[in-house]
Structures are given as structure tokens and as C-alpha cells.
Amino acid sequence: MPGLPRDNFSGKHYNTTTTTTTTMNVEFGIEVPGEANPLTEGILFHVLRSATSTDPTQIQTGTKQLQEWEKARGFYPLLQTVFLDKSLPLEVRYLAIIQLKNGIDRYWRKTATNAVTKEDKAAIRTRLLESAVNEADQRLALQNALVVAKIVRFEFPNDWYARLC
């Protein structure tokens, strides 16, 4: 406002008799580091949905968050939970099983940096066969079969012998 002094801190224009406030509508997003987003089933679903979006910004944000969670305790059992939930969209379930399969490649070995914990492995193992026989979608069934095969290959005969006999 010409002629009126401006308070540089608040952006308000004022004089001794009349006060005029200028309002500016600004939209902005704050990107928070991955550690700030708690790993829960609901948030994981939303992140997976973002990563399967057609919007490049959402894909980038979702993918970045998934990469942050790769090393987090509980991430892989939650991916399996999302995969097993048949009420969710196929593309979300598909990304969940792909992420699980890729995580097994990278982190299942005991010697891997940031290896999947024993508790997480046990949780995943208990639902492996259930997920293998109950999946109607061929693409999802194939990816889940690869998950089962990779785990058996890493653990047989030591950790799987008693389960199969």
C-alpha cells in the first residue's frame, strides 16, 4: 500500500488511524524425512498408492519413502500384510509383493547389512503358504511364488527342514 509504513515482520500496513492487513494465500508442502513418517499398515498403504500413481511427484515421494523404510524393522511383514489384503487395489498389492521380493534378495541373509530380523522372518514364514494357495490373480501368485522360492532357497535345509517334514 503506497504511502503507509509497513511492519517488515508481520507484513501489515498501518497508520495511526487506519490499519490495513494484506493477506496472501500461499500453498506449499513440507517434505519431511522418511524417519518422521511412522511405519504403520495404513501409512504404508498410502505410500504404496502414491508410488503407483500416475503423478510423477507422488511416484517420487512414495518411492523415496519406501526406500527409507527398506531397513526398518517390521517393513517386510507389513508389505506381506498389504499383499494379503484382497480388498486393496491390485496395483498396490502388486507393488507390495514386488517390494517384499526385492527386499528378500537384499536383506534376508543373516550377513546382509540391515538384515531382516528373526522376528520379521518368522512372521513372514507363518503366512507364506497361506498367501501362495489363496491368490487368484496370476501376476500376484507368480510374484508370491518367487518370494516363497527365494526364502526356501536361502533357508533350506537348515531353517526349513522341520517345516517340510
Describe the model:
There is one protein chain. With 165 residues, the protein is mainly alpha-helical. The protein has one domain. 55% of the residues lie in helices and 2% in strands. It is built from seven helices and two strands; from the N terminus they run ββααααααα. The protein has helices at residues 41-51, 56-69, 75-84, 90-107, 118-133, 138-155, 161-164, and strands at residues 13-14, 19-20. A two-stranded antiparallel ribbon has the order 1-2. β1 (13-14) and β2 form a beta hairpin. The longest helix has 18 residues, at 90-107. The radius of gyration is 24 Å and the shape is globular. The termini are far apart.
Main sheet: strand order? 1-2
Model regions low in confidence, pLDDT < 50 over at least 5 residues: 1-34
The DSSP helix count reads 7
Percentage of residues in DSSP E strands: under 5%
N-to-C terminal Cα separation, in Å?
84 Å
Determine the structural class based on helices, strands and strand pairing: mainly alpha
Shape: globular
Order of helices and strands: EEHHHHHHH
Mean pLDDT: 80
Biggest sheet overview: 2 strands, antiparallel
